[in-house]
Design brief:
Elements: H1 2-5, H2 21-28, H3 38-57, H4 64-74, E1 75-76, E2 84-86, H5 97-113, E3 123-126, H6 133-143, E4 150-154, H7 161-172, H8 182-185, E5 188-190, H9 197-203
Helix pairs in contact: 4-5, 5-6, 6-7, 7-9
Pfam families: LRR_6
InterPro entries: Leu-rich_rpt, LRR_dom_sf
């Protein structure tokens, strides 16, 4: 109980050093070792599952115009450290990633047609702090062939887990626009606060 009281149950902590909800389970489970503790553990897991489902059910996905506004606000092709789409801490839902990437593809095509595009430069993509999970990474993988090469990919605190790590491993091996794999161009990859686990870490 003392351990639980000192930990946050925030599913998407604001700071890297704050444990996610999974950290609460990780800290508590070793203390429930007796057979009679089994019910306590099951109830703890069930409550966390209900909390997650309730949170997602309470939030309506953004409409296309709202997603377009996010892309326009976060896209900076003249940034000093390279063209960047910064969507960190925008409370993106897993189901919003695919339509958001569609907006990005369309906006980059529009700018290239106007002579204001990437001109062959790779893109920095920051999705950090959004609980997009494995589903969001899958959407990124499926959109990769139509996206420009990525120089940096920031996925800190995205709730990936081992499943997201497996999706990410496939993403890195997926060809981006131009033919080379996503991993071939990538120079920076941020994955902290994701609970990838040993299997997920090996996969990546």
């Amino acid at each position: 109980q003392r351990t639980a009281a000192t930990l946050t149950v925030d599913l998407n902590p604001k700071y890297d050093w704050e444990p996610q909800a999974g950290g609460v389970i990780e800290a508590l489970l070793p203390r429930f070792t007796a057979e009679e503790d089994r019910e306590v553990v099951v109830r703890l897991l069930a409550c966390l599952l209900v909390l997650t489902r309730t949170a997602f059910a309470a939030v309506a996905p953004r409409d296309p115009e709202a997603l377009r506004a996010l892309v326009l606000a976060g896209l900076d092709l003249d940034r000093a450290d390279g063209p960047t789409l910064d969507l960190s801490d925008k409370a993106l839902l897993p189901c919003e990633v695919a339509p958001l990437l569609e907006v990005l593809v369309g906006e980059l095509a529009r700018r290239e047609a106007a002579g204001e595009g990437l001109a062959g430069r790779p893109l920095r993509l920051n999705l950090g702090g959004n609980p997009i999970g494995p589903h969001g990474v899958k959407a990124l993988r499926e959109a990769a062939p139509r996206l420009p090469p990525l120089r940096a990919l920031d996925l800190w605190g995205c709730g990936l887990g081992a499943g997201g790590a497996l999706e990410l491993a496939e993403l890195l091996a997926t060809p981006s626009r131009g033919g080379a794999t996503v991993g071939a161009h990538l120079e920076e990859l941020y994955l902290h606060v994701n609970g990838l686990g040993e299997a997920g870490g090996r996969a990546v």
